[in-house]
Amino acid sequence: MLQLKLHKEKIECGTDEAGRGCLAGPVTAAAVILPNSFVNEILNDSKQLSLIKRNQLKQLVEEKAIAFAHSHVMMDEIDKINILQASITAMHRSIKQLNPIPEFIAVDGNKFNSFQGIPHQCVIKGDAKFLHIAAASVLAKTYRDAFMDKIHEEFPMYNWKKNKGYPTLEHREAIKKYGITKYHRKSFKLLPEQLKINF
């Protein structure tokens, strides 16, 4: 089982994002404060979990958490500020919604900008080490997937319901055939060098 958090005595949130490597759709982050009594042997990095498990854990986390929030940063903002800053911005916006305000922030990965002077620590592969970061990873992934499922209805030819906007061969072939949509990130290399695309 993963560890609960870094500091038992503090109100500590875990935060993580989903969708950094996608060609379309938002980058989505979540932040979660779990009670000290929280235990779960299944909760882990969302990428290690089946769709059914993720959805079950989303419901469980939202029932048991002291506080949780998520935030999407959309494509136009990603294109303006770059994907790393967009990921951090999504985390900040999630943390800002939490009540109570955390006294410490545990961040998945190795990059973060200080938020309102609250101490933080970056943890490489934190979503496979700490329950609150894993919980945030599950929420970020499930909320982002739900967004991609919704916009799939508008543009089914890209099959976002399946690929969630990631650069699969099928997704790139659809871009080559149909061009891009308002949901594509124009600052990303949407096709390999030899295949040009007109914006």
From TrEMBL:
Q: Which organism is it from?
A: Planktosalinus lacus
Please state what the protein is called: Ribonuclease HII
Q: Report the sequence similarity comment from the record.
A: Belongs to the RNase HII family.
Q: Which Pfam families match?
A: RNase_HII
Enzyme category, top tier? hydrolase
| Key words, A-Z | Cytoplasm, Endonuclease, Hydrolase, Manganese, Metal-binding, Nuclease
What EC number(s) does its UniProt record assign?
3.1.26.4
- What is its cofactor? Mn(2+); Mg(2+)
Q: Where in the cell is it found?
A: Cytoplasm
Cofactor binding note: Manganese or magnesium. Binds 1 divalent metal ion per monomer in the absence of substrate. May bind a second metal ion after substrate binding.
Gene it is expressed from: rnhB
One of the entry's Gene Ontology molecular-function terms is:
RNA-DNA hybrid ribonuclease activity
Q: What does the UniProt function comment say about this protein? A: Endonuclease that specifically degrades the RNA of RNA-DNA hybrids.
CDD domains, alphabetized: RNase_HII_bacteria_HII_like (cd07182)
| Binding of a divalent metal cation, residues | D16, E17, D108
Q: Which SUPFAM superfamilies match?
A: Ribonuclease H-like (SSF53098)
**What would be one Gene Ontology cellular-component term for the protein?**
ribonuclease H2 complex
Q: Which reaction does it catalyse?
A: Endonucleolytic cleavage to 5'-phosphomonoester
Under the heading PANTHER family, the entry gives: RIBONUCLEASE H2 SUBUNIT A, RIBONUCLEASE HII
